[in-house]
Design brief:
Layout: H1 3-13, H2 17-24, H3 28-35, H4 42-54, E1 57-60, E2 68-71, H5 86-107, H6 115-126, H7 130-135
Antiparallel strand pairs: 1-2
Helix pairs in contact: 2-3, 2-4, 5-6
Length: 144
């Protein structure tokens, strides 16, 4: 599988790099590096190809016209994704907040402040900004 084929296969399945990484049990950075033409372990490329083939992708060898992909007979290309449910949106927001808290904690490691001060700074960095709250009609716009 060539990097361009990987991109084409993802497009045919309407998969993001993260979705391919999850299905292939590799890191998203591995998918991104491979598709950018950088080095990737053959075992990772094999896992990605196997995941794409399991989803119905057929890889077409370069036959003078260039490499390509197609979907297995009877497969229908996915249409626009269904809107995310409230639970999916909440789970995504919670995940983003946990990542923001971890990043803020890492950034505050070298700061000379008490634990309470660091917690207050972290909360100010990771809480929903007041501007967004105002836009949603929840209050006045005051930034921390």
């Amino acid at each position: 599988m060539k990097p361009v084929q990987c991109r084409m296969a993802r497009a045919a399945l309407a998969w993001s790099t993260t979705q391919l990484a999850e299905k292939a049990d590799v890191g998203a950075n591995t998918v991104n590096r491979f598709e950018a033409g950088q080095d990737a372990r053959m075992s990772s490329v094999d896992k990605m190809r196997a995941a794409l083939e399991a989803a119905g992708v057929i890889f077409v060898a370069e036959n003078g016209e260039g490499p390509g992909v197609r979907l297995r007979k009877g497969m229908v290309a996915p249409t626009a994704a269904a809107p995310a449910s409230t639970e999916q949106v909440q789970a995504s927001a919670d995940h983003a907040r946990r990542k923001a808290v971890k990043a803020a904690d890492r950034a505050l490691v070298g700061v000379d402040a008490s634990g309470e001060e660091k917690a207050a700074r972290r909360d100010a960095l990771t809480d929903e900004p007041a501007l967004f709250a105002k836009a949603r009609g929840k209050g006045k716009a005051k930034l921390p």
